[in-house]
Amino acid sequence: MLKFTDDHEWLRVEEDIATVGITDYAQKQLGDLVFVELPAPGAKAEKGTAAAVVESVKAASDVYAPVSGEVTEINQAIVDEPALVNRDPMGKGWFFKIKMFDPSQLDGLLDEKAYQAMIA
Amino acid sequence: MSETPQVTRPLRTPLHGFHVERGARLVTFAGYEMPVQYPTGILTEHLHTRVAAGLFDVSHMGQIAMYPLSGRLEDAARALETLVPVDVIGISEGRQRYALFTNAIGGILDDLIVANHGDHLLLIVNAACKAADLAHLLRHVGETCKIDPLPDRALIALQGPLAEAALVRLAPPIRTMRFMDVRTLQILGATCEVSRSGYTGEDGFEISIAADRVDALAHALCEDNSMMPIGLGARDSLRLEAGLCLYGSDLGPETTPVMASLEWAIQNVRRAGGSRAGGFPGAEVILRQLVDGAPRRRVGLKVEDRVPVRGSAKLYPDEISESSIGIVTSGGFGPTVQAPIAMGYIDKALVTTGTRIFGEVRGKRVALRVCDLPFVPHRYKRNRN
Asked: Which domains does chain B have, with CATH numbers?
Protein backbone atom coordinates (compact mmCIF):
# COMPACT_ATOMS: atom_id res chain seq x y z
CA MET A 1 0.00 0.00 0.00
CA LEU A 2 1.32 3.43 -0.98
CA LYS A 3 0.17 6.55 0.88
CA PHE A 4 1.05 10.25 0.81
CA THR A 5 0.86 13.22 3.15
CA ASP A 6 0.02 16.78 2.20
CA ASP A 7 3.58 17.66 3.39
CA HIS A 8 4.89 15.62 0.42
CA GLU A 9 6.09 12.49 2.22
CA TRP A 10 5.29 9.05 0.88
CA LEU A 11 4.92 5.78 2.84
CA ARG A 12 5.07 2.25 1.51
CA VAL A 13 3.33 -0.02 4.01
CA GLU A 14 4.08 -3.72 4.49
CA GLU A 15 2.28 -5.19 7.50
CA ASP A 16 3.07 -2.85 10.39
CA ILE A 17 6.24 -1.36 8.87
CA ALA A 18 6.09 1.89 6.86
CA THR A 19 9.01 2.93 4.67
CA VAL A 20 9.05 6.74 4.44
CA GLY A 21 10.53 9.12 1.90
CA ILE A 22 9.81 12.41 0.14
CA THR A 23 7.99 12.69 -3.17
CA ASP A 24 9.43 13.59 -6.55
CA TYR A 25 7.49 16.86 -6.34
CA ALA A 26 9.16 17.60 -2.98
CA GLN A 27 12.68 16.90 -4.19
CA LYS A 28 12.09 19.15 -7.21
CA GLN A 29 10.86 21.97 -4.99
CA LEU A 30 13.82 21.59 -2.61
CA GLY A 31 16.43 21.42 -5.36
CA ASP A 32 19.83 19.75 -5.08
CA LEU A 33 20.19 18.28 -1.60
CA VAL A 34 23.56 18.58 0.11
CA PHE A 35 22.81 17.30 3.62
CA VAL A 36 20.42 14.81 5.23
CA GLU A 37 19.97 14.21 8.96
CA LEU A 38 18.03 11.09 9.95
CA PRO A 39 16.62 9.96 13.30
CA ALA A 40 18.52 7.36 15.30
CA PRO A 41 17.24 3.78 14.93
CA GLY A 42 15.09 3.04 17.97
CA ALA A 43 13.90 6.64 18.24
CA LYS A 44 10.20 7.27 18.76
CA ALA A 45 8.56 9.29 16.02
CA GLU A 46 5.33 11.17 16.57
CA LYS A 47 2.95 11.78 13.68
CA GLY A 48 3.31 15.30 12.31
CA THR A 49 6.56 16.18 14.09
CA ALA A 50 9.98 16.66 12.49
CA ALA A 51 11.77 13.34 12.14
CA ALA A 52 14.50 14.20 9.61
CA VAL A 53 16.09 17.31 8.09
CA VAL A 54 17.09 17.90 4.48
CA GLU A 55 19.20 20.81 3.33
CA SER A 56 19.60 22.16 -0.17
CA VAL A 57 22.25 24.69 -1.17
CA LYS A 58 19.78 27.39 -0.15
CA ALA A 59 17.80 26.22 2.86
CA ALA A 60 16.98 23.60 5.51
CA SER A 61 13.59 21.83 5.63
CA ASP A 62 12.01 19.35 8.01
CA VAL A 63 10.68 15.95 6.99
CA TYR A 64 7.73 14.97 9.19
CA ALA A 65 6.84 11.57 10.54
CA PRO A 66 3.63 10.67 8.66
CA VAL A 67 2.60 8.19 11.37
CA SER A 68 3.66 7.54 14.97
CA GLY A 69 5.95 4.64 15.71
CA GLU A 70 9.47 3.45 16.38
CA VAL A 71 12.23 4.00 13.83
CA THR A 72 13.54 0.53 12.99
CA GLU A 73 15.93 1.28 10.14
CA ILE A 74 17.49 4.30 8.41
CA ASN A 75 18.94 4.72 4.93
CA GLN A 76 22.59 5.62 5.54
CA ALA A 77 23.13 5.84 1.76
CA ILE A 78 21.28 9.19 1.56
CA VAL A 79 23.35 10.57 4.44
CA ASP A 80 26.52 9.63 2.55
CA GLU A 81 25.10 10.85 -0.77
CA PRO A 82 22.15 13.26 -0.41
CA ALA A 83 21.84 13.57 -4.22
CA LEU A 84 20.36 10.04 -4.19
CA VAL A 85 17.12 11.61 -2.91
CA ASN A 86 17.00 13.87 -5.99
CA ARG A 87 17.80 11.02 -8.37
CA ASP A 88 15.49 8.33 -6.99
CA PRO A 89 13.12 9.80 -4.38
CA MET A 90 10.63 6.92 -4.39
CA GLY A 91 13.26 4.18 -4.52
CA LYS A 92 16.89 4.26 -3.37
CA GLY A 93 16.28 7.68 -1.83
CA TRP A 94 14.00 6.37 1.00
CA PHE A 95 14.61 7.91 4.46
CA PHE A 96 13.60 5.57 7.29
CA LYS A 97 11.33 2.71 8.32
CA ILE A 98 8.81 3.03 11.13
CA LYS A 99 7.09 0.27 13.06
CA MET A 100 3.64 1.80 13.40
CA PHE A 101 1.94 2.08 16.79
CA ASP A 102 -1.49 2.73 15.28
CA PRO A 103 -2.02 1.62 11.68
CA SER A 104 -5.42 3.35 11.71
CA GLN A 105 -3.48 6.63 11.30
CA LEU A 106 -3.03 5.56 7.67
CA ASP A 107 -6.73 6.17 7.06
CA GLY A 108 -6.26 9.92 7.23
CA LEU A 109 -3.54 9.95 4.54
CA LEU A 110 -3.86 10.46 0.80
CA ASP A 111 -3.77 7.75 -1.82
CA GLU A 112 -1.72 8.29 -4.95
CA LYS A 113 -4.62 9.64 -6.98
CA ALA A 114 -5.55 12.19 -4.31
CA TYR A 115 -1.92 13.25 -3.92
CA GLN A 116 -1.43 13.72 -7.67
CA ALA A 117 -4.61 15.80 -7.75
CA MET A 118 -3.30 17.95 -4.90
CA ILE A 119 -0.03 18.83 -6.63
CA ALA A 120 -1.56 19.20 -10.10
CA MET B 1 -12.58 51.00 10.48
CA SER B 2 -10.91 48.42 8.35
CA GLU B 3 -7.73 48.92 6.46
CA THR B 4 -7.27 47.49 3.01
CA PRO B 5 -3.93 45.72 2.92
CA GLN B 6 -1.63 47.27 0.36
CA VAL B 7 -0.79 44.56 -2.14
CA THR B 8 2.33 45.57 -4.02
CA ARG B 9 3.04 43.59 -7.11
CA PRO B 10 6.71 42.78 -7.52
CA LEU B 11 8.53 44.67 -10.25
CA ARG B 12 9.94 42.87 -13.25
CA THR B 13 13.29 43.36 -14.93
CA PRO B 14 13.48 43.73 -18.74
CA LEU B 15 14.69 40.10 -18.82
CA HIS B 16 11.52 38.72 -17.23
CA GLY B 17 10.43 37.08 -20.50
CA PHE B 18 13.89 35.57 -20.95
CA HIS B 19 13.69 33.99 -17.47
CA VAL B 20 10.19 32.60 -18.03
CA GLU B 21 11.16 31.24 -21.45
CA ARG B 22 14.02 29.35 -19.83
CA GLY B 23 11.84 27.86 -17.11
CA ALA B 24 13.23 29.87 -14.21
CA ARG B 25 11.71 29.52 -10.77
CA LEU B 26 10.91 33.11 -9.81
CA VAL B 27 10.99 34.57 -6.30
CA THR B 28 10.53 38.08 -4.98
CA PHE B 29 13.83 39.65 -4.01
CA ALA B 30 14.18 43.32 -3.02
CA GLY B 31 10.78 44.01 -4.59
CA TYR B 32 11.63 42.33 -7.91
CA GLU B 33 10.49 39.05 -9.37
CA MET B 34 13.88 37.38 -9.92
CA PRO B 35 15.05 33.92 -11.05
CA VAL B 36 16.32 31.94 -8.06
CA GLN B 37 17.28 29.06 -10.33
CA TYR B 38 16.67 27.57 -13.76
CA PRO B 39 15.71 23.91 -14.34
CA THR B 40 19.37 22.82 -14.20
CA GLY B 41 19.48 23.67 -10.49
CA ILE B 42 21.75 25.66 -8.21
CA LEU B 43 24.59 23.09 -7.97
CA THR B 44 24.96 22.80 -11.74
CA GLU B 45 24.65 26.55 -12.24
CA HIS B 46 27.29 27.22 -9.60
CA LEU B 47 29.78 24.68 -10.93
CA HIS B 48 29.17 25.74 -14.54
CA THR B 49 30.06 29.35 -13.67
CA ARG B 50 33.38 28.23 -12.15
CA VAL B 51 34.40 26.15 -15.19
CA ALA B 52 32.66 27.92 -18.10
CA ALA B 53 30.47 31.04 -18.09
CA GLY B 54 27.24 32.26 -16.50
CA LEU B 55 24.86 35.08 -17.38
CA PHE B 56 23.25 36.83 -14.41
CA ASP B 57 20.39 39.34 -14.59
CA VAL B 58 21.26 42.01 -12.04
CA SER B 59 18.96 44.65 -13.49
CA HIS B 60 17.28 45.04 -10.09
CA MET B 61 20.41 46.81 -8.85
CA GLY B 62 20.43 50.59 -8.85
CA GLN B 63 22.40 52.56 -11.44
CA ILE B 64 22.92 56.21 -10.61
CA ALA B 65 24.91 58.73 -12.66
CA MET B 66 26.50 61.74 -10.92
CA TYR B 67 27.31 64.73 -13.14
CA PRO B 68 29.30 67.64 -11.65
CA LEU B 69 27.35 70.90 -12.16
CA SER B 70 30.71 72.65 -12.62
CA GLY B 71 31.64 70.32 -15.46
CA ARG B 72 34.80 69.27 -13.62
CA LEU B 73 34.57 65.59 -12.63
CA GLU B 74 36.85 66.16 -9.65
CA ASP B 75 34.06 68.23 -8.08
CA ALA B 76 31.70 65.23 -8.23
CA ALA B 77 34.43 62.97 -6.85
CA ARG B 78 35.14 65.42 -4.04
CA ALA B 79 31.41 65.61 -3.22
CA LEU B 80 31.08 61.82 -3.13
CA GLU B 81 34.10 61.62 -0.81
CA THR B 82 31.97 63.35 1.86
CA LEU B 83 29.80 60.19 1.94
CA VAL B 84 32.33 57.35 1.51
CA PRO B 85 35.71 56.59 3.20
CA VAL B 86 37.19 55.96 -0.22
CA ASP B 87 39.65 57.73 -2.53
CA VAL B 88 37.16 58.70 -5.26
CA ILE B 89 39.32 61.50 -6.68
CA GLY B 90 42.01 58.90 -7.31
CA ILE B 91 39.82 56.77 -9.58
CA SER B 92 41.25 57.38 -13.06
CA GLU B 93 39.02 57.74 -16.09
CA GLY B 94 38.14 54.23 -17.27
CA ARG B 95 38.50 52.65 -13.81
CA GLN B 96 36.14 51.76 -10.98
CA ARG B 97 36.45 51.06 -7.27
CA TYR B 98 34.47 49.43 -4.44
CA ALA B 99 33.00 51.90 -1.94
CA LEU B 100 30.78 52.12 1.14
CA PHE B 101 28.21 54.70 2.22
CA THR B 102 28.75 55.15 5.97
CA ASN B 103 26.55 56.62 8.70
CA ALA B 104 27.35 58.78 11.75
CA ILE B 105 28.32 55.79 13.90
CA GLY B 106 30.62 54.38 11.23
CA GLY B 107 28.12 51.72 10.12
CA ILE B 108 27.50 50.82 6.50
CA LEU B 109 24.40 52.16 4.71
CA ASP B 110 25.24 50.34 1.48
CA ASP B 111 28.17 48.97 -0.47
CA LEU B 112 28.58 50.09 -4.06
CA ILE B 113 30.80 50.43 -7.10
CA VAL B 114 31.95 53.84 -8.34
CA ALA B 115 33.15 54.11 -11.94
CA ASN B 116 34.81 57.10 -13.61
CA HIS B 117 33.28 57.59 -17.06
CA GLY B 118 35.09 60.86 -17.82
CA ASP B 119 32.22 63.32 -17.64
CA HIS B 120 30.32 61.52 -14.86
CA LEU B 121 30.59 58.96 -12.10
CA LEU B 122 28.43 55.83 -12.42
CA LEU B 123 27.34 54.26 -9.14
CA ILE B 124 26.03 50.68 -8.93
CA VAL B 125 24.14 50.14 -5.67
CA ASN B 126 22.14 47.34 -4.05
CA ALA B 127 18.52 46.89 -5.14
CA ALA B 128 17.11 47.02 -1.62
CA CYS B 129 19.01 50.25 -0.86
CA LYS B 130 18.60 52.16 -4.09
CA ALA B 131 15.75 54.47 -3.05
CA ALA B 132 17.52 55.36 0.20
CA ASP B 133 20.85 55.83 -1.59
CA LEU B 134 19.24 58.16 -4.12
CA ALA B 135 17.67 60.26 -1.34
CA HIS B 136 21.01 60.28 0.51
CA LEU B 137 22.85 61.56 -2.57
CA LEU B 138 20.22 64.20 -3.41
CA ARG B 139 20.28 65.48 0.14
CA HIS B 140 24.04 65.64 0.61
CA VAL B 141 25.55 66.26 -2.80
CA GLY B 142 22.52 67.47 -4.79
CA GLU B 143 23.81 71.05 -4.75
CA THR B 144 27.04 70.27 -6.55
CA CYS B 145 25.95 67.34 -8.72
CA LYS B 146 23.11 66.34 -10.98
CA ILE B 147 21.99 63.00 -9.55
CA ASP B 148 20.51 60.95 -12.32
CA PRO B 149 18.90 57.57 -11.54
CA LEU B 150 18.88 55.31 -14.61
CA PRO B 151 15.73 53.17 -14.29
CA ASP B 152 15.68 52.53 -18.04
CA ARG B 153 18.98 50.69 -18.02
CA ALA B 154 19.36 46.97 -17.47
CA LEU B 155 22.46 45.31 -16.00
CA ILE B 156 23.78 41.85 -16.74
CA ALA B 157 26.88 40.10 -15.41
CA LEU B 158 28.89 37.53 -17.34
CA GLN B 159 31.09 35.51 -15.02
CA GLY B 160 33.50 32.63 -15.38
CA PRO B 161 36.67 31.64 -17.22
CA LEU B 162 34.88 31.54 -20.60
CA ALA B 163 33.03 34.86 -20.18
CA GLU B 164 35.71 36.71 -22.14
CA ALA B 165 35.52 34.29 -25.07
CA ALA B 166 31.72 34.59 -25.19
CA LEU B 167 31.70 38.40 -25.10
CA VAL B 168 34.69 39.07 -27.32
CA ARG B 169 32.77 37.93 -30.42
CA LEU B 170 30.27 40.75 -29.84
CA ALA B 171 32.69 43.30 -28.37
CA PRO B 172 36.31 42.75 -29.47
CA PRO B 173 37.78 45.62 -27.40
CA ILE B 174 36.98 43.85 -24.10
CA ARG B 175 40.03 41.65 -24.64
CA THR B 176 42.38 44.40 -23.49
CA MET B 177 40.40 45.33 -20.38
CA ARG B 178 41.71 44.29 -16.96
CA PHE B 179 39.95 43.85 -13.61
CA MET B 180 37.99 47.01 -12.64
CA ASP B 181 38.42 48.71 -16.03
CA VAL B 182 35.30 50.38 -17.46
CA ARG B 183 34.64 51.30 -21.08
CA THR B 184 31.82 52.56 -23.25
CA LEU B 185 31.38 50.10 -26.12
CA GLN B 186 28.93 49.42 -28.93
CA ILE B 187 27.45 45.94 -28.60
CA LEU B 188 24.86 44.81 -31.17
CA GLY B 189 24.36 48.46 -32.03
CA ALA B 190 23.61 49.52 -28.45
CA THR B 191 25.81 51.82 -26.38
CA CYS B 192 26.93 49.86 -23.33
CA GLU B 193 28.94 50.68 -20.22
CA VAL B 194 31.10 47.61 -19.71
CA SER B 195 33.23 46.85 -16.65
CA ARG B 196 35.54 43.91 -16.07
CA SER B 197 34.22 42.91 -12.67
CA GLY B 198 31.52 40.90 -10.93
CA TYR B 199 30.65 39.25 -7.66
CA THR B 200 31.59 35.59 -7.97
CA GLY B 201 35.39 35.70 -7.59
CA GLU B 202 35.75 34.77 -11.26
CA ASP B 203 36.94 36.87 -14.18
CA GLY B 204 34.00 38.47 -15.94
CA PHE B 205 32.09 41.54 -17.04
CA GLU B 206 29.11 43.64 -16.10
CA ILE B 207 27.22 45.33 -18.92
CA SER B 208 24.87 48.27 -18.45
CA ILE B 209 22.59 48.52 -21.48
CA ALA B 210 19.26 50.15 -22.41
CA ALA B 211 16.36 48.10 -21.04
CA ASP B 212 14.85 47.62 -24.52
CA ARG B 213 18.11 46.18 -25.88
CA VAL B 214 19.04 43.70 -23.13
CA ASP B 215 16.84 40.82 -24.26
CA ALA B 216 18.57 40.69 -27.67
CA LEU B 217 21.97 40.81 -25.98
CA ALA B 218 21.10 38.03 -23.50
CA HIS B 219 19.85 35.81 -26.32
CA ALA B 220 22.94 36.50 -28.44
CA LEU B 221 25.25 35.68 -25.52
CA CYS B 222 23.41 32.44 -24.78
CA GLU B 223 23.96 31.27 -28.35
CA ASP B 224 27.46 30.50 -27.10
CA ASN B 225 27.33 26.94 -25.76
CA SER B 226 29.52 27.80 -22.81
CA MET B 227 27.05 30.42 -21.54
CA MET B 228 24.28 29.37 -19.13
CA PRO B 229 21.79 31.65 -17.35
CA ILE B 230 22.37 31.61 -13.58
CA GLY B 231 19.89 32.47 -10.83
CA LEU B 232 20.20 34.23 -7.50
CA GLY B 233 20.68 30.93 -5.65
CA ALA B 234 24.01 30.22 -7.33
CA ARG B 235 24.92 33.91 -7.25
CA ASP B 236 24.71 33.66 -3.45
CA SER B 237 26.77 30.46 -3.13
CA LEU B 238 29.37 31.83 -5.59
CA ARG B 239 29.83 35.11 -3.70
CA LEU B 240 29.99 33.26 -0.38
CA GLU B 241 32.80 31.01 -1.64
CA ALA B 242 34.54 34.17 -2.89
CA GLY B 243 34.27 35.66 0.63
CA LEU B 244 32.24 38.63 -0.64
CA CYS B 245 29.70 40.39 1.58
CA LEU B 246 25.97 40.52 0.97
CA TYR B 247 24.45 43.78 2.18
CA GLY B 248 21.66 43.09 4.68
CA SER B 249 23.27 39.82 5.77
CA ASP B 250 26.99 40.45 6.26
CA LEU B 251 26.85 44.26 6.25
CA GLY B 252 24.44 46.70 7.84
CA PRO B 253 24.06 50.07 9.57
CA GLU B 254 25.71 48.73 12.73
CA THR B 255 28.66 47.09 11.00
CA THR B 256 31.71 49.26 10.46
CA PRO B 257 34.15 48.66 7.57
CA VAL B 258 36.79 47.53 10.10
CA MET B 259 34.39 45.04 11.73
CA ALA B 260 33.57 43.80 8.23
CA SER B 261 37.28 43.26 7.42
CA LEU B 262 36.92 45.75 4.56
CA GLU B 263 39.90 47.96 5.50
CA TRP B 264 41.30 47.38 2.01
CA ALA B 265 38.46 49.55 0.67
CA ILE B 266 39.80 52.57 2.61
CA GLN B 267 42.84 54.01 0.87
CA ASN B 268 45.64 55.69 2.87
CA VAL B 269 44.72 59.15 1.60
CA ARG B 270 41.44 58.96 3.60
CA ARG B 271 43.08 57.52 6.74
CA ALA B 272 44.69 59.41 9.64
CA GLY B 273 47.76 61.16 8.27
CA GLY B 274 46.46 61.11 4.69
CA SER B 275 46.00 64.36 2.76
CA ARG B 276 42.18 63.93 2.70
CA ALA B 277 41.85 62.04 5.99
CA GLY B 278 38.31 61.71 7.37
CA GLY B 279 35.54 63.98 6.17
CA PHE B 280 32.97 61.17 5.76
CA PRO B 281 30.16 60.11 8.14
CA GLY B 282 31.46 58.16 11.13
CA ALA B 283 35.08 59.09 10.37
CA GLU B 284 35.99 59.37 14.04
CA VAL B 285 34.91 55.77 14.77
CA ILE B 286 36.32 54.29 11.58
CA LEU B 287 39.70 56.04 11.73
CA ARG B 288 40.13 54.98 15.34
CA GLN B 289 39.20 51.36 14.54
CA LEU B 290 41.67 51.34 11.64
CA VAL B 291 44.39 51.84 14.28
CA ASP B 292 42.98 50.03 17.33
CA GLY B 293 40.86 47.35 15.68
CA ALA B 294 37.15 46.66 16.23
CA PRO B 295 35.60 44.61 19.05
CA ARG B 296 34.23 42.09 16.54
CA ARG B 297 35.41 41.02 13.15
CA ARG B 298 34.13 39.19 10.08
CA VAL B 299 35.88 35.88 9.48
CA GLY B 300 35.51 32.79 7.34
CA LEU B 301 34.25 29.63 9.03
CA LYS B 302 34.69 26.03 7.90
CA VAL B 303 32.37 23.43 9.35
CA GLU B 304 34.12 20.27 10.58
CA ASP B 305 31.03 18.12 10.04
CA ARG B 306 28.77 18.04 6.93
CA VAL B 307 25.92 20.09 8.37
CA PRO B 308 25.40 23.58 6.89
CA VAL B 309 25.54 26.35 9.50
CA ARG B 310 23.40 29.17 8.18
CA GLY B 311 22.90 32.88 8.76
CA SER B 312 21.80 33.91 12.30
CA ALA B 313 23.26 30.76 13.92
CA LYS B 314 24.82 31.80 17.24
CA LEU B 315 28.50 31.09 17.87
CA TYR B 316 30.04 29.87 21.13
CA PRO B 317 33.60 29.36 22.40
CA ASP B 318 32.95 25.72 23.36
CA GLU B 319 30.24 23.05 23.51
CA ILE B 320 28.64 24.16 26.78
CA SER B 321 29.11 27.89 27.31
CA GLU B 322 25.93 29.96 27.48
CA SER B 323 27.53 33.22 26.38
CA SER B 324 27.70 33.74 22.64
CA ILE B 325 30.90 35.08 21.10
CA GLY B 326 29.47 35.86 17.69
CA ILE B 327 26.96 35.14 14.99
CA VAL B 328 26.92 33.63 11.49
CA THR B 329 25.80 36.16 8.88
CA SER B 330 26.00 33.99 5.73
CA GLY B 331 26.26 30.24 5.56
CA GLY B 332 25.47 27.32 3.35
CA PHE B 333 27.02 24.67 1.21
CA GLY B 334 29.91 25.59 -1.08
CA PRO B 335 29.51 23.49 -4.24
CA THR B 336 33.11 24.11 -5.39
CA VAL B 337 34.72 23.50 -1.98
CA GLN B 338 32.29 20.57 -1.56
CA ALA B 339 31.68 21.45 2.07
CA PRO B 340 29.55 23.68 4.25
CA ILE B 341 31.06 27.16 4.65
CA ALA B 342 30.06 30.33 6.46
CA MET B 343 31.04 33.87 7.31
CA GLY B 344 30.28 35.52 10.61
CA TYR B 345 31.34 38.03 13.20
CA ILE B 346 33.30 36.90 16.25
CA ASP B 347 34.98 38.57 19.22
CA LYS B 348 38.37 40.06 18.41
CA ALA B 349 40.16 37.72 20.85
CA LEU B 350 39.17 34.63 18.82
CA VAL B 351 40.09 35.98 15.39
CA THR B 352 43.00 33.67 14.65
CA THR B 353 43.05 31.27 11.74
CA GLY B 354 42.46 27.74 12.99
CA THR B 355 40.62 28.69 16.20
CA ARG B 356 37.95 26.09 16.96
CA ILE B 357 34.54 27.48 17.91
CA PHE B 358 30.98 26.13 17.88
CA GLY B 359 27.80 27.11 16.10
CA GLU B 360 24.30 26.18 17.22
CA VAL B 361 22.21 24.28 14.67
CA ARG B 362 18.77 22.98 15.73
CA GLY B 363 19.86 23.05 19.38
CA LYS B 364 23.11 21.16 18.79
CA ARG B 365 26.65 22.54 18.85
CA VAL B 366 28.62 22.06 15.63
CA ALA B 367 32.40 22.56 15.50
CA LEU B 368 33.78 25.25 13.16
CA ARG B 369 37.27 26.50 12.38
CA VAL B 370 38.09 30.14 11.79
CA CYS B 371 39.66 30.31 8.33
CA ASP B 372 41.04 32.79 5.84
CA LEU B 373 38.84 34.20 3.09
CA PRO B 374 38.12 33.58 0.28
CA PHE B 375 37.22 29.89 0.31
CA VAL B 376 37.89 29.72 -3.44
CA PRO B 377 40.77 31.83 -4.81
CA HIS B 378 39.78 34.87 -6.87
CA ARG B 379 40.67 34.59 -10.53
CA TYR B 380 40.39 38.22 -11.60
CA LYS B 381 42.33 39.31 -14.64
CA ARG B 382 44.64 41.83 -13.01
CA ASN B 383 47.13 42.29 -15.87
CA ARG B 384 46.59 43.69 -19.33
CA ASN B 385 47.23 41.45 -22.33
From this structure: 11-60+152-241 (3.30.1360.120), 295-374 (2.40.30.110)
For B48-85, the three-class secondary structure string (H helix, E strand, C coil) is HHHHCEEEEECCCCEEEEEEECCCCHHHHHHHHCCCCC
Size of interface A-B (CB pairs under 8 A): 42
- By CB atoms closer than 10 A (0-12, 13-18, 19+), residue B254 is exposed
* Cβ–Cβ below 8 Å for B307 and A34: no
Contacts of A58 in chain B (CB under 8 A): 36, 42, 233, 236, 332
Best of A27, A33, A34, A78 to disrupt the B interface by mutation (most B CBs within 10 Å)? Answer: A34
> For A12-56, how does the pLDDT look when each residue is reduced to its tens digit (9 = 90+)?
999 999 999 999 999 999 999 999 999 999 999 999 999 999 999
Determine contact: B137 vs chain A, CB below 8 A. Answer: no
Count other C-beta atoms under 10 Å from residue B38's C-beta. Answer: 20
Q: Nearest by CB to B332, from A31, A37, A58: name it.
A: A58
Shortest distance, CA B15 to any CA of chain A (angstroms): 23
Q: Helices marked H in B223-282 — which ranges?
A: 232-241
Q: Which domains does chain A have, with CATH numbers?
A: 2-103 (2.40.50.100)
Give every strand in the sheet of B108-116, ordered side by side. Answer: B96-102, B108-116, B121-125, B62-68, B145-149
Question: pLDDT digit string (tens) for B345-371?
Answer: 999 999 999 999 999 999 999 999 999
